[in-house]
Amino acid sequence: MAQEQIEEYLETIYDLETRDGSAKTTAIAKCLKIAPGSVTEVLRSLSDKGLIAYEPYRGATLTCEGKKIAGTIKRKHRLLEVFLTDVLKLNREKVHDEACKMEHTISEDTENALCKMLDAPAHCPHGSPIGPCNKGVGSCAECDGAGKTDMPVAIRDKKIIPITDLRPEQNGHIAFIRGDCKVVQRLSDLGLTLGTKVSILKKTPIDGPVEILVRRTKLAVDHAIADNIFIELPVAGEP
Amino acid sequence: MSGCGECKACQSGKECTIKNADYTIALAGNANVGKSVIFNQLTGVDQIIGNWPGKTVERAEGLLLHKGKRIRVIDLPGIYSFSTYSMEELVSRDFIALEHPDAVINVIDASALERNLFFTIQLLELSPPLMIAVNQIDLAEKKGMTIDTKKLSALLGVPVVPTVAIKGKGIADLTDAITDLMQNHPVPPVLRYGKEVEERIGKISSLLETVTTQYPVRWTAIKLLERDPSIVQMVSEQDRSVVTKAGLLTGEIEAMHGEPVCVVMSAERYQIADRIAAEVLIMRVTGDGPQKKSMTDKLDAVALHPVLGYLAVIAVIGGLLVWTFLIGAQVSALLASFLSQFEQYEPVVTGPLMDILWNGAFTGFVAGVTLVIPYVLPFYILLAVIEDSGYLTRISMMLDRGMHKLGLHGKAIIPLILGYGCNVPAIYSCRIMETPKQKTLAAFLVTLVPCTARTVVILGLVAAFVNIWWALALYAFDILLIIVVGRIAFKAVPGESVGLIMEMPDYHVPSVSVVLKQTWARTKSLVWIVFPAYILGSALIQAFYAVGLLNPVNALLAPITVLWLGLPAVIGITLIFGIVRKELTILTLAVIFGTTNFATIMSPVQLIVLALVSMLYIPCISVILVLASEFGWKKALAISAAEIVMAIAIGGIAFRVLSMWM
After folding, report:
1. What is the ipTM of this complex?
2. Does A136 touch chain B (CB under 8 A)?
3. Do A183 and B306 touch (CB under 8 A)?
């Protein structure tokens, strides 16, 4: 099976899983405009590769490995959309299809170069969030430094989510803060330094500020700023 | 000590710094740690609140008499760091470094030890004679935290005193420790950072041998490493090569950590703070069961609830306004009848000029007294209670999203609410916003908030002679207008906006001294600016009035007032008077027509249009003065001009639309 096809499937399952909880064969067939029979076949082979967990009738869910690939593709896709809209000034309606084709061919270097040139955008032109890269860096400034000194950067292997996606009873450690230097400075002065344990106390409706608990103090932080604070979740089993 | 020739207090002729002090000490620390309470405990009633020279930052100063010595106590602004270069931070660090206070008391919150120690570490870099007051130690105990203050003192090498300032506990120990510090001037020990950072601080320190500054050498070196703009400039004026070399060392640090140097330094300081906190903090284990919910958690379940939270906001702000006007109207009437015993205070327009001026000045004084005492004062006391209890931060959080529509964030709700009392202190309070753009925008919107004087006009014209619903409709329209104008101004005003980052303190019972101090801090500007403007303005206007400028002015304004706004021609002069005091509009009208029953001289439409125009057309003269002192004359005049045009346009349209209906 071609890499492109695998990626296309993983992406679709990723979307459906986010929407419905799992990806049903019929739903996948509809999205990709393929006969359900051939979908089942591909799902089996993906399951053999360890990329998805598949049970007939209940649908498919991504494994960690599968999620990683799908996440990277999504990131490339949305970065490309920003590039096509903002730099090449293509019509916003068109960029999705273009990006769909390009996302399978660009390398990680290109992805990182795009991210740097576009100043690490937080959202694609259609408003979907662009996830953080999987390099082991703590901030975008570090990425610049890493580029200059050509230091090898470690690959992240833990799950990283924006703090706004934390559930109230969850906690995690700050992995990465994206954004304006002044804002990052202010956050770190108030105790939000890398590696610090944080949790969410309250979220206000319609993307209002979130209340963050850090070092036994509470901070109200604008939703857009909080969206750029990324959290590393503890490995299952850890308290 | 430097004088403070430019501070606001001096305009009223008051002394603005404590004279003949034997010693000077300063209180420093985060916001919400009870610093003001300690300040009040130390200084009692002898307080002077003004501005730092040439800065729009408030300065509080008081006198402590201890063992026959006069000690000047300065309450520095509540800050979290010396690194974001805000005005408050610059003022604080320059005071400590350049004015060499005899003691610096770092007030820290026992419940948030790490974040407070983060600031302590930065204070230590400035190496003043330092001591620490661990405050609210009782609240920390309640949360299951015990702090070993002796160990903390040993680790930091400075005296540490536990206090519960609100109950006066530990204040005696504090004064003793201060006395010790003042007499001995001990230099606190140096805290060492990580190896990479420390090496480079050392290198820069040795480079600084050729440079002379008033700051400590190690501190200057650290600031050079952090690329602090003002220190970089100061050193480069003497020896540019030092700055270049320091810049290279900074580059090494950034390459090593892959982060901006300021973030590296914050992380270094927090590492030390965490380490110290871990050694001195004993947490009582509360068992495996779910932790008991604190009072704050219970209250927040309502205050930050997606539905109940908004209802609470409406109830509290609405209640505050309604209560103020119900009480205010009663007290105001009482005061007016009391003052009328002394002098007749209806405007006098005939007789000798001195009489006219005197009468004008007196009516101005009466107007000030009957507005400030009954309306503004209770309003601000209640607001200060809400603020000190911690609830105001919850309102800010709940309304943050809505404020985004105005290009502001949740904190801007504070100046906007203050504006309903009087625009003058409300504009001063715009200092809490972070960027110049947000400050200007908030101040502009504040001038559109109907203050008590404008409320008197709306109530006196519309509620009294049309009906209460039209008066409320005017208020609703005003809020709508603020939103629309805010959106336009957000696009038009250049500059950057930053989002909300705000500490959420626990709720607590408000302290009387803090509430009164906050109220005074806000109402004092009324005494210096609003009262003189009222008194002088009223006298002048009455003189103009007496020499017969009435008709020419009316004739000149007739095209606008009569043709466009559909109002009687005499309104021209009342609108001019209204620039001095908005509520003068009603007063002059009554004198000119010889009646207070405005329904007999104007139609409901005319009453509504007049109230609408009075509400919007220009900030009063006090507000223009404050805008000019905070933002410069250019912006003050631009805002005034924009509002005149807007009020005339809206008034004319309202006249035409309402005429079709009524």
Report:
1. 0.76
2. no
3. no
